[in-house]
Each structure stands twice: as C-alpha cells, then as structure tokens.
Design brief:
Layout lengths: L28 E4 L15 H6 L1 H6 L4 E4 L3 E2 L11 E5 L6 H13 L3 E6 L9 H6 L13 E2 L20 E4 L4 E4 L14 H17 L3 E4 L45 H14 L5 E5 L6 H8 L8 E3 L10 H14 L6 E3 L8 H4 L6 H14 L3 E5 L19 H6 L42 H5 L5 H12 L4 H4 L1 E5 L5 E8 L2 E8 L5 E4 L4 E4 L8 E3 L2 E4 L3 E8 L1
Parallel strand pairs: 1-2, 1-13, 2-5, 5-9, 9-10, 10-11, 12-13
Antiparallel strand pairs: 3-4, 6-8, 7-8, 14-15, 15-16, 16-21, 17-20, 18-21, 19-20
Helix pairs in contact: 5-6, 10-13
C-alpha cells in the first residue's frame, strides 16, 4: 500500500500560521475522521500514524488546521464519541507517543491541530460512571444525571434520545434512571456538579499541555439539563420537526429542558478562561440548535467571553437554493454581533454535499464551486475529508452497516456510514490504498476514480482546483476576515462583498446549471482571476456559466 513519506510533497505552509492569536478567523479547518483516513497497521481501521503518513498531502491542500474526530479510549459503541478515558488513545488508533509524533508532524508543516472534546457524556465503561452507578452515596454518585422513577415506574420525564426511544435508562443497582441524550451506553454528565466541570476542564488541560491548538466541542449546547426535570412541550402547531429524519420522534418536541440551558453560558466562560491561559488556542462548538442557531451562536461566541466560533446544521440540510443559503447566512451575519461562525457543507454526521446538493449536476464543476462558496462566507470554513476530492455519499448495504443510528431507523434513514467510508488514495489497489486488510466499512466503488493520488496527477481535477483556490484565497484577507454584505440578484445566483481594512472583494456565484447574468450598479469591478472559475465582467454586467463564479476587486 502506498505510504507518503513525511519528506514527500513540498508542504504548502499557510500564511496564517503566525503568532496572530486570531489565526482561526477565516482559517480553513480540515476534518479528519481517523477510522477512515489511512490504516498503517493492517487492521482495517485508520490510525494516528496514518494521519502522520499523509501529513504532506494535508498540508498540500492549503488548509490552516486539522480537526481530528475522537481517537480516545472507547468501547466504540458510537465510534469514539463514547469516551472511557479522556487522557488515553484507544489502541486501535495507536498510543500517546503516536499522537505526539502526529502533532509534531503537523506543527512542522505549519498546521494547527484541533481535537474533538466530547464532554456532554461519557461511555458507560468510564470509571466515573462505573463508580457513580455502584451506589447512591459514593464520591461520584452525583456526577451523572440520575432520577427516581415516577410512582408507576415510568421514566422521570418525557425527554427523548436522538438515537431513538426515551432519554432514560433503568439501572438496577441504584434503582434509578440515568439520562442519555444519545445511546443508552452514553450517560450524560451532570454539569450542575462543580466537580464534574473541574474534571472535564482538567481533561482539556491535559491535551493543551500536550500542545494541541484547540478543541471542537461536541454537542456544546447539551451540557446542562433542567435541574427541575420539567417535561418538554410538543412542537408548536405548524412547526417542522427539527430532526433531519422525520421518522425520528425526537423532532416532535420543543427541547426547552433537556438541552440549551442558560447555565451553559457560565460554564463556557470557564472553558474560555482555560483556553486563554494557552495563547493562540481556539474552540469551535457544534450547536444542535432546533431553530435557534443565530441566537445561540451569538451568545456562545460573544467576543472574548466564551468559545471562539460555532457551527450549526443550517447548511447541512437538503435545502440548497440560493435564496435559502442567502437567508441563513444573512440572518447569521445580522444577529451574531461580534461573534464568529464556522460553516460546513459536509461532515461525519450528514450526507455528503456532492450527493445532498450536487445530485444531477456535473460534479466536476459543482464540487469546486461548493468548496469556494463555503470558503468565501464570513466565518471559518470546515472541509470534511474527501470533500476536496468531490466524493459522493456511499450506499452501504444494511448487512454492512455499523452505525447504531442507521440500524435503528433503517430504511427511512440509513445512518451516517455512507459519509464515513474509507478515504480512497489509489485506484489500482484492493482497498483503494486505505488498508492492506478488509476495511471496517467497504470502499465505495465509485470513489476509486476520484482517489487522491489519481487526482493529484491531473492538473484539472477537483482536488487540484480546490488546492489552487485555497492557495489563492490565502493572499486575499477580505475573504478570511472581512465583513460581508449581500447584493440583490436573481435565480440561483449569490452575490456579496467582503471588506477588510479598506479593501473590498465582490464574490458572485451561479449555483444553477444554466448560464446567468447579474448587474451590479454603483461598483467599479476588476476581475482578480480566481483559479478555476471563468465568470466575466463587462462594466456593471457579470456573466456566469452554469456552476461558475467570479471574484473581483470592487470600488465605489
């Protein structure tokens, strides 16, 4: 299996890698799902040494930082999002020494490393929970959310698990229920207990001391529950269920009491104080907002007070018209105040954007356009592994599914395995260069033609178009840190300006397959030739081919 040596491709060190404490503003963050990135020990599962072996490839993308999904010690019921040791590396991914080597390799190339911090819940195999469930009077008895049954033995509240069923599980030892927002094997920590807050901050400090550059905070608005254990009301009349999958009853409640509690703001101030003690570190929170994305992002990312940036799922849905995207982004810009958003079009939890938005379109044109659009919005863009290749969603047969979420709700919802299949590196290898063994999920046959090292040899490939755009973007600060203003346009076009320190760049996108024209009065435009895009400017008129864009220096 080909392995890229650390001294291979010449690293393209991003210009943002300076001592600027605000490097994260507008930084491109590359999300790596380690299980599916690169396997170096032949067990069919990706590992930290696999990430290190591909570090030159990662640096060649022109990204600023890596976000690593969980690699902590875990029974893997939810593939690492059920942590049993916050300070350990699961043996399937390697060791702490392997992590240190990977981190050093990234830093050598000017890349920051952000790791997933999953602290709303633990695994039921975590020593904290094992002690907590042993009795009602042990030292950690109140570290998790326990409650007595109702007089008839039923669950304490009507709260539901995202993964199906009640958010409560009976424990025969304590003769109480414990709360779990996700799997029954993922008990929720009780953040009303100050010792719990101290413990998870200590876990964060462990990794900061090791040199990580920040955290992606999983389910950041799930930390606190209502101490009075009040029932959630139903969704209001006419409201749409918030879940991506309408077959899941979770979306039929208004989640007032099981998450997004006001106490969370105080804890996030403690988290920010810890990060501020390590200058140059950052944080990005995942908000499951149920329609409150703007309000929560504004509150959670209030400048200098709480976390640095946050993302929601508003651009991770099937809706993708130009008017929808404009509404989502414009509302965020108007309501976020001095906060900062992060934007993603794909990640490890949703159908890949190549299928979700690009179905039926010319993917060779759509994929670079989508990448450029996300990287041009005000905020910090996240690029999910394989997105730089234009990968589509894999169709994983039921018999090969591993995701408990998908298994539970099959066939209406097929789960998350389709976006988690192994990264294809070469076309002429049994497992696309990912592993010498049968991989934990099958390699999608259609991904082989888009393998990374195959595209690397084609100057016109999606991969090389994305590389060229990110490299070009590094030299245009308005696209990283500038203010953003939308201009009116018709059909499937999006037109906006980004302004920073007196320089304005106009960005015009045609998300439709047919050619379009846009008129921009009152601005003098000079095409600045973004690589891979062919839009033209004639006075106030912009002409765009289908799935095309143009970038221009703009002056009044």
């Amino acid at each position: 299996m080909p392995q890229e040596a650390e001294t291979g491709l010449e690293a393209n060190v991003p210009a943002s890698m300076t001592k600027d404490p605000d490097w994260w503003k507008g930084a491109v963050i590359y999300q790596i799902y380690p299980r599916s990135f690169n396997d170096t020990n032949g067990d069919g599962v990706g590992d930290l040494n696999g990430v290190r072996a591909r570090m030159d490839y990662i640096a060649s993308l022109g990204v600023d930082a890596i976000w690593l999904s969980p690699f902590f010690t875990s029974p893997m019921e939810d593939f690492g999002y059920d942590v049993s040791d916050y300070e350990g590396v699961d043996p399937m991914f390697g060791s702490l020494a392997d992590f240190d080597d990977m981190l050093a390799a990234a830093h050598k190339r000017g890349l920051k490393v952000i790791i997933d911090l999953v602290i709303s819940h633990t695994s039921d195999q975590h020593p904290w929970f094992r002690e907590s469930r042993s009795s009602k009077d042990n030292s950690k008895a109140d570290w998790f959310v326990w409650a007595d049954a109702r007089p008839d033995g039923t669950v304490p509240t009507n709260w539901l698990s995202i993964f199906g069923g009640a958010a409560w599980e009976w424990d025969s030892r304590r003769r109480q229920y414990y709360m779990h927002n996700f799997l029954a094997s993922q008990p929720d920590l009780n953040f009303h207990n100050a010792e719990v807050q101290d413990a998870v901050l200590d876990a964060a400090r462990f990794w900061l001391d090791r040199g990580v550059d920040g955290f992606r905070l999983d389910t950041v608005n799930f930390y606190f529950h209502d101490a009075q254990l009040r029932d959630n009301p139903p969704m209001g009349a006419g409201d749409t269920p918030s879940t991506v999958d309408p077959s899941n009853p979770y979306g039929y409640q208004d989640h007032l009491y099981d998450k997004t509690r006001p106490e969370n703001l105080v804890f996030l101030e403690r988290m920010r104080a810890l990060l501020d003690a390590y200058p140059g570190t950052t944080s990005v929170g995942e908000i499951g907002a149920d329609g409150q994305a703007v309000e929560l992002t504004a509150a959670y990312t209030e400048a200098g007070k709480r976390i640095h940036m946050a993302y929601s799922f508003d651009l991770l849905t099937t809706q993708h018209s130009a008017s929808h995207i404009r509404r989502i982004v414009e509302e965020m810009n108007a309501g976020i105040g001095d906060g900062w958003a992060s934007w993603a079009l794909s990640n490890h939890d949703v159908v890949r954007v190549g299928s979700r938005w690009g179905d039926g379109l010319d993917l060779n044109r759509f994929a670079p356009l989508a990448t450029a659009l996300c990287a041009s919005l005000r905020g910090s863009p996240c690029l999910y592994q394989g997105e730089e290749l234009g990968l589509t969603q894999a169709d994983v047969p039921f018999e090969n599914l591993k995701d408990p979420y998908g298994i539970r709700f099959w066939p209406d919802y097929k789960g998350r395995d389709g976006c988690r299949t192994p990264m294809p590196w070469v076309n002429d290898n049994a497992h696309a260069g990912f592993s010498d063994a049968d991989p934990w999920l099958p390699v999608a046959a259609e991904h082989r033609a888009r393998a990374a090292f195959e595209q690397d040899r084609d100057a016109t490939s999606i991969l090389n178009r994305n590389r060229a755009f990110y490299a070009w973007r590094q030299d245009h600060q308005p696209l990283r840190k500038g203010d953003m203003t939308f201009l009116d346009s018709d059909g499937e076009t999006l037109v906006f300006t980004r302004t920073y320190q007196g320089e304005t760049i106009l960005c015009a996108f045609n998300l439709g397959a047919e050619p379009a024209e846009v008129t921009v009065p009152d601005l003098a435009l000079e095409n600045i030739d973004a690589p891979g895009f062919t839009g033209t400017i004639d006075g106030a008129r912009i002409s765009l081919n289908g799935l095309d864009a143009v970038f221009a220096r703009a002056k009044r």
